[in-house]
TrEMBL record:
Transmembrane feature ranges: none
Similarity field: Belongs to the GST superfamily.
PROSITE patterns: GST_NTER
The species this protein was found in: Hermanssonia centrifuga
InterPro entries reported in the protein's UniProt record: Glutathione_S-Trfase_N, Thioredoxin-like_sf
Name recorded for this polypeptide: GST N-terminal domain-containing protein
PANTHER family: GLUTATHIONE S-TRANSFERASE GSTA, GLUTATHIONE S-TRANSFERASE-RELATED
Occurrences of domain GST N-terminal (ranges): 23-104
Length: 291
């Protein structure tokens, strides 16, 4: 987390978007978005030529009415191509896989749907606090900055005339995000949030210890010798969990998971991490840090 600020500074000094090729797909993305990493890995593995447009979720730009016109859910990644818009990592990545010249193993819908289930949400673990110590860390670090910025953006955009069309969206987000902000500020009791956070982490740990090894091969990827559609999702999800657990971008970042697992990482998960971290696509997407 301590490297987030420096990473963001580097991120916004890059030229991510070109208007020279209007016919090219445009991926709306952000460098700290876990689900944006899914199509980003796919783009690298498939050798695709895709323009990218940065939407700064840390500043709440994804809540702007102009972006909600493109994606009413206000989420990343979002892909605009040939007059169509794809608004989830599942749909975006599936489109890329289906239309790429290079063919990879198609995904299993049930597997992909499971990793995107709310109970395994890799975004929530960024905000979780299971005890007073974690709450203190969150309330003085990146989590409260992130949540406060989101609240400020929601209040700003919901007050605009063009935001009236998205009133229900803003009302729901203001309440949910504001609830977390109140916990960080100590304005409401935190016990229930501690319990919810603990349960969420237990579910994440259970998936890594019990479920994930059953779908991973002894070596390589779910898609075979090279990553397939399933792997783009699983790899990005695992990178986020490792990052929140304390890993940076080191090839053995999986070791950070030992803290949460309270023991060794399953051998298949270790093998899978090593297979991913050795690839050029992984090194490109996670060049600065895991996220």
């Amino acid at each position: 987390m301590s490297k987030v600020k420096s990473y963001l500074q580097k991120l916004f000094h890059r030229d991510h978007h070109s208007n020279e090729h209007a016919s090219k797909p445009v991926l709306h993305t952000f460098g700290l978005s876990v689900w944006s990493a899914v199509p980003e890995l796919a783009i690298q593995e498939l050798g695709l030529d895709v323009d990218t447009k940065i939407v700064n979720v840390v500043e709440g730009e994804n809540f702007a009415p102009e972006f909600l016109k493109l994606n009413p859910k206000g989420t990343l990644p979002t892909l605009a191509v040939d007059g169509k818009t794809f608004t989830s990592s599942t749909d975006v990545t599936h489109y890329l896989v289906q239309t790429a010249s290079k063919k990879v193993t198609p995904g299993h819908p049930e597997l992909i749907a499971k990793i995107h289930d709310d109970k395994y949400d890799p975004n929530f673990i960024l905000l979780t606090t299971r005890n007073e110590e974690e709450l203190k860390t969150a309330s003085t670090g990146f989590p409260i900055t992130f949540v406060q910025n989101r609240q400020n953006a929601l209040e700003k955009y919901s007050a605009l005339p063009e935001g009236a069309k998205f009133k229900d969206f803003y009302t729901e987000k203001l309440e949910a995000n504001g609830g977390v902000l109140k916990i960080y500020k100590g304005e409401v009791p935190s016990a229930d949030f501690f319990n919810t956070s603990t349960t969420h982490w237990q579910t994440i740990v259970g998936y890594i210890q019990n479920d994930l090894p059953t779908i991973l091969p002894e070596s390589g990827f779910i898609g075979g010798a090279e990553p397939g559609e399933d792997d783009f999702h699983i790899g990005a999800w695992l990178a986020r969990v490792a990052w929140v657990s304390g890993a940076d971008k080191e090839e053995e970042g999986y070791k950070a998971l030992e803290k949460e697992l309270k023991g060794p990482v399953p051998e298949k998960v270790v093998s899978y991490w090593k297979a991913w971290s050795a690839r050029a696509s992984w090194k490109k997407v996670y060049a600065e840090t895991l996220h």
